[in-house]
Here is the input.
Amino acid sequence: MMLLEFFDEKAYRFFDALHVGVVILDSNDRIVLFNQMAGKMLGQDPSSRINSSILRCHPERAEPGVKKMIDQLKSGELKEYSGWVNFQHRIYWEHIYPIRNEKGDYLATVMELHDGSAKARLLELEGEFVKPELHGVGESSPRSPVPESELR
Here is the structure.
């Protein structure tokens, strides 16, 4: 499902204007929205991520954990996830949760990415912050939106 089939243009413009990174997945774990702020925070071209698998935004070694979390969000076993991210030496707070219809059926997964640097510094001064593992560099880099096998 393409972006404008999932959202109308006003909704798309709204998400794109936010000062928080937003990535939305459809029920097939494909990215239907990757707003400009998410692109800026993660050093990605938002348009290249639309309709690609969320798994391609993570290193191959992270796939099992990412897939498990999304499956747990879909099933309701996991209500939401929040935690620190150290991406290319920038500290973010991520909040991931499912969207359900009025019957409780799963519709989508939303990932919010917030600049966490100020809160992290404050917690660090209070001795309460442990910097998370570094991601986004080397073997922990996101992969191309298109698998190499599809480029051939």
User: Anything to note?
Assistant: The helical segments are 3-6, 9-17, 36-42, 46-49, 63-75, 117-125, 148-151. Strands lie at 21-25, 31-34, 81-87, 90-100, 106-115, 134-135.
